[in-house]
Design brief:
This protein is α/β, with parallel strands linked by helices. It contains 7 helices and 6 strands, in the order H-H-E-H-E-H-H-E-E-E-H-E-H. It is globular and about 45 Å long. The structure holds zinc ion.
Length: 246
Amino acid sequence: MVRPIRYNIDTAVPQRSGGLWRCLRTGLAVLFLGISLAGCAEYEPAVVERPITWDAERERLSLAYLEARYGLTPVTPRINPKMVVLHWTAIPTLEKSLEAFEPSRLPQTRPDIQTAGALNVSAHYLVDRDGTIYHLLADTLMARHTIGLNHCAIGIENVGGTPETPLTEAQLKANIWLVRHLKASFPITYLIGHHEYTSFEGHPLWLEQDSAYRTEKTDPGPAFMNDVRRAVKDLGLQGPPKMQNP
Ligand SMILES: [Zn+2]
């Protein structure tokens, strides 16, 4: 949304008579207005509600995951968001990324994490390469995206992350906006990249019960995290425990 800008030309430039001065005054006003519009236009990404399947099976598998992984037995698979975790899908297109999260049950293509639960992976948000934000899941429902921390973490996935599809400037801007939006809505304390998640082992928020259940992650990488953290520094969000004051 662009805020309406009220520019009172006569307070900016004192009144003078003469055609040349009028011309100069008009030119200055146009210049000021242009600078103001460029500098003050508020960035508002497109946010599209695009829910993935949340059916009785997904709810049941989510509850089973919370109990098996964390020893939690809530009535509904709700979370109290305290953390935002940024990711990339390592899938180059929006459509294929959505397809990966759509089924409630983990497909057979993921034998690496099958033994830890049949719930499919997902995230709360998926950011397309043009910066459009797709909202996949209610912020307070559990998504399986980060071992040990899903009970308190909102996941933001970004389409891409392959060598041919590095994350874009538009995605960076959308992630920054989304982190600010979530911090304004929930008591978020931590902001981490998925590649940093194992730093939480031993932290009170780390609830994974199996010390052998880990996957090695590189997403979304330190460069992207540095850019996001620099832009939201004023929010005072903490990084992972072993890298305070990043
Ligand atoms: Zn990830």
